[in-house]
Amino acid sequence: MKILENISLKPYNTFGIDCTARYFALIESLSDLMEIFAAREFLKLQKLILGGGSNILLCSDFNGLVIKIDLKGIDLLTDGSIKVQAGENWHDFVLWSLENGYNGIENLSLIPGNVGAAPMQNIGAYGVELKEVFLDLEAFHIETGEIHVFTNSQCEFGYRESVFKNSRKGEYVILSVRFNLHKTDEVDIRYGAISKVLENQGILHPTPKQISNAVIYIRESKLPDPKKIGNSGSFFKNPVVLKSDFLLLQEQYKDIPSYLINSLEVKVPAAWLIENAGWKGKVIGNYGVHKNQALVLVNYGGAKGADIYELAQKIQASVKNRFDIHLQMEVNIINGTN
Predict the structure, then answer these.
(1) What is the pTM (predicted TM-score) of this model?
(2) Where are the domains of the chain?
């Protein structure tokens, strides 16, 4: 394992922010990981665990050690479950599952990032969440060097949440994830956009592969390709508000959309709030809000992470002022100057 110095992180984050890491290590095995955390010269340095770089915004150079997890491998176990190493690309795994007749994650096609990051935020899209197919994961405990297993319940999954973003934040490095996928052609088309695409294509009884193709079509029509325009997908979470507060909002904004969570709570699309606060398509120099999807903040080339973060804060303040709803950032803000 080599430790590199003064490495640009531009190729390692989907926002395409050009920040420099003081030290950079590529982890291709468990022994690499154990070695880097045991190295005395790096013990006191700030550390950044990096996967696919799809859910971060770098706001400065990183004056510490960036640890890029590049563990690879997909294994079919004897019990029928599938064990995937953390460094595998998520969408590549979805395609692998479909090619090998394993279904259940086709609705999660084209989500950027690596498998190791998927349980951290319980990725979800078009009516399906990771927790529905998740069995357990193996994680490296940074302080002790031990390997711990986390079951579905121990991960404490919520809406874009897990124990790794809350009480256990910064304590572990996820090594692998085990999935329970199925061999049947049962699919989930509850999400209206999928049904509409299939209807337009004349598909009445879709296969999992056709569901995946429909999701890819929808995402590509709405979301910019990070290889062409820097972004990290949805920048904000959809806020959940009390139903009583939503009914008051509805009196003023008749067309405000919502999704009922339970008898007391309602989820409001963040994109609608941002668009109706006047931000959709807003361009500020070389960054802004995407013209087709208000949830996506973009780097048109050469933008600084700090500028995009400031834009995100202005959007939060604007939505709060107009609708009295706080938007929570889904993207992790990284400041490595300490």
Answers:
(1) 0.90
(2) 3-69, 72-222, 230-334
